[in-house]
Specification:
Elements: H1 2-23, E1 46-47, E2 52-55, H2 58-71, E3 75-78, H3 80-95, H4 104-120, H5 125-133, E4 138-143, E5 146-151, H6 158-167, H7 175-179, E6 191-193, H8 195-207, E7 212-216, E8 221-223, H9 231-248, H10 250-279, H11 281-284, H12 287-310, H13 322-330, H14 333-348, H15 354-371, H16 378-404, H17 413-425, H18 428-439, H19 444-450, H20 456-464, H21 466-485, H22 490-499, H23 526-546, H24 551-559, H25 567-576, H26 597-612, H27 620-636, H28 647-664
Parallel strand pairs: 3-4
Antiparallel strand pairs: 1-8, 2-7, 3-6, 4-5
Length: 676
């Protein structure tokens, strides 16, 4: 079910990417001339080969259509029989009426008013509202094939017509008596919207618009070499190109070209999809990760297309190596190299010298792979960019000498292009920061910066809660070592461990490691103490969010106790009140439980390190017993069931903890006194 949920949307994203790249792909130009508005004409004198119209631009046609539609008024049709029927009905009702108060004056006024209203027009309320909503000022009223104009503001609905009769009655007539005459019975909508006529007239007016605004005669001078192509000349050239392509069937051929390019591009992108499906399903089944990968692919290809089509600058100025650097920073080397190969293959179909481009870019991708194993500081990026510059330079020089056999024919300007490429690669550091904010990723660079103990949160932790700070350092050492042994992200665990207890800075004295001689819990109930202890999780999350700590680190704060219990106060309560019903939620952490290898390792390390401080007799056997008891208890409570940790991973973690604790608590030999 999960596979079906993710595969369909991500597959659509791959197809859309192929379509967009194929659409913007440079295609063969059927018109022999290339021209740009505001640029000089680079060819010889051009004259019109035959008569042809000067076609209006899409913007001009749209403006004229909008002008026609803005002045257009819809058509309504009058039903004359309604007026006759309703007046006759009024007279019949009056003849049978035995009310002495309703004198002939009343009926004459009502009949006269009804006739007047029907002549102006009574329309349905919704139709009148639609007219006002669409901004129409007037309508065309059809009666016996004769059109009359009416202002929308003059039209009546049944309700406003009734109010009109009452409000405009002569002073000699009593309105209360008028209300008893059931005037509503004789008010019916007599005009209605004529959809067919409206559509027909609107279409006729649009069809009457001309698509051209002039003619060019055969032999007429159009433009000569060196002349600036102004707006008028540009429209003439564009019209000549349209006429030329329509005569040569260029559009159909363009369709075939687009089809071939799409199949080729889609085939290359399909290979990337198959790679992710076979080796990186966790990337493929994540919309965020898939969108990021395809965005890197799309932007690289579009920049290449723009550069080549408009001849803006040399294509080697574009820093293609940024993509594998960024992908390597957030994911892994194999994926970085593969997406670089995909980009290189697609872009090689656009550039003038595809074989040279392929060679240089493939070498650059391999250099990134082995020179940037992990981007954790600026010096690594500078070193990688320097190696890339060397690889570009040596590859180009050696290939040129091999092909030309003459060093004098080398294009030394290429070294300048490679130098600009080197400078642009320096912006990768800034780009990584922007991508972290946009996609919610966290890089090793950020992790290293966050783990600096001089950051505001960690500095405050070391000053306000020194015991907790030392505990965090020990947990960081334990957890990162264990994480590296099972293939988890050691740097992520190390940084997460540094922040997992920052919530204790709110009430540091309530935690054992920060206490001196006074324990404030002695004055509180077990429930109150448990809530304060549990509260360090929610307080930590608040502090981290306020400091804009990445979500990946906040996850360690939320999960380092999972949905476990504050065991000390929980057990104390149970022992003191064995027969009393206990509120489990009061003593339970909010969670959630750990859901990754890294958060699972931190939970185990946190509990083991805290418990190890209570050991009085520190021996290898006691340490081993303690570690097994803590970790097995967490397994039994189901706190680690959502993590991808295997039993083998947990055994490795246990053994790592035991070895590390033995070293951390080793005894020193006593130095002998010097005999005098």
């Amino acid at each position: 079910m999960k596979l079906r949920y993710y595969t369909i949307p991500t597959a659509v994203l791959f197809i859309l990417t192929a379509i967009v790249i194929g659409y913007f792909f440079p295609r063969e130009v059927k018109f022999r001339y290339q021209f740009y508005e505001g640029k000089p004409w680079r060819y010889e004198l051009l004259t019109a080969p035959s008569d042809f119209p000067i076609y209006k631009t899409e913007a001009e046609i749209k403006a004229e259509r909008d002008s026609v539609l803005s002045n257009f008024e819809p058509y309504f049709r009058t039903n004359k029989t309604i007026e006759t029927e309703e007046v006759e009905k009024l007279r019949t009702s009056y003849a049978s009426l035995n009310n002495e108060q309703v004198t002939p004056a009343y009926m004459q006024y009502i009949e006269k008013s009804i006739v007047q209203l029907y002549k102006i027009g009574i329309v349905a309320y919704q139709e009148l509202e639609d007219l006002k909503k669409d901004g129409y000022k007037g309508i065309n009223l059809l009666e016996n094939n004769i059109v009359e104009s009416r202002y929308v503001s003059d039209l009546f609905t049944v309700r406003t017509a009734y109010e009109f009769i009452l409000n405009n009655a002569p002073a000699s007539l009593d309105k209360d008596i008028l209300r008893t005459c059931n005037i509503n019975n004789y008010l019916v909508e007599n005009i209605s919207f004529d959809q067919d006529m409206t559509d027909k007239v609107r279409e006729d007016r649009l069809q009457s618009l001309s698509i051209s605004n002039g003619m060019v005669q055969a032999g007429e001078r159009i433009v000569d070499r060196g002349e600036i192509v102004d707006n008028h000349t540009y429209n003439i050239l564009r019209s000549l190109k349209i006429v030329h392509e329509s005569k040569t069937g260029g559009k159909q051929r363009q369709g075939f070209i687009f089809g071939g390019q799409f199949v080729l591009v889609f085939g290359i992108i399909l290979c990337f999809w198959l790679y992710l499906w076979s080796f990186r399903p966790r990337i493929l089944y994540s919309r965020k990760n898939t969108s990021f990968m395809l965005l890197c692919l799309l932007v690289s290809c579009l920049l290449t297309e723009i550069c080549v089509s408009h001849n803006l600058f040399n294509v080697y100025i574009l820093p293609y190596a940024i993509v594998p650097i960024v992908v390597r920073t957030f994911f892994d080397s194999r994926t970085a190299l593969f997406i670089h190969l995909v980009i290189t293959l697609i872009c090689s179909l656009m550039v003038p010298y595809p074989h040279e481009f392929l060679l240089l870019q493939i070498v650059a991708g391999m250099v990134v792979t082995f020179s940037l194993r992990d981007l954790s500081d600026r010096s690594q990026l500078i070193r990688c960019a320097f190696f890339l510059y060397l690889s570009y330079t040596l590859s180009y020089l050696s290939m040129s000498v091999y092909l030309e056999g003459d060093p004098s024919k080398l294009n030394w300007l290429m070294l300048l292009y490679f130098g600009i490429n080197f400078i642009l690669l320096m912006f990768t550091y800034v780009l990584i920061y922007m991508l972290e904010k946009a996609f919610g990723y966290i890089s090793t660079i950020t992790l290293v910066e966050l783990s600096n103990i001089n950051t505001p949160l960690l500095k405050k932790l070391s000053e306000v809660a020194p015991g907790t700070f030392q505990h965090s350092l020990q947990v960081s050492s334990l957890a990162s070592d264990a994480a590296s042994k099972i293939g988890a992200n050691a740097q992520l665990v190390r940084t997460g461990a540094m922040y997992h207890d920052i919530g204790k800075t709110t009430n540091p004295a309530f935690f054992t490691e920060n206490q001196k001689n006074v324990n404030p819990h002695d004055q509180l109930t077990f429930e109150q103490s448990a809530q304060i202890i549990i509260g360090h999780v929610t307080e930590g999350v608040k502090l981290a969010e306020k400091a804009s700590i990445p979500q990946a680190i906040i996850d360690f704060i939320r999960t380092h106790h999972g949905k476990g219990k504050a065991k000390y106060f929980y057990n104390m309560y149970k022992n003191k009140f064995p027969d009393k019903e206990i509120d489990e939620e009061t003593f339970t952490y909010p969670g959630p439980n750990p859901f990754s290898k890294e958060t699972g390792v931190l939970m185990m390390a946190d509990s083991v390190e805290a418990a190890s401080r209570s050991l009085t007799d520190i021996t290898e056997e006691n340490i081993k017993t303690l570690v097994n008891k803590i970790v097995d208890g967490q397994l039994a409570d189901g706190l680690l069931k959502n993590t991808p940790l295997t039993f083998r991973d947990i055994e490795i973690v246990k053994n790592t903890f035991i070895e590390k604790l033995k070293i951390m608590y080793h005894t020193r030999i006593s130095y002998p006194e010097l005999k005098k």
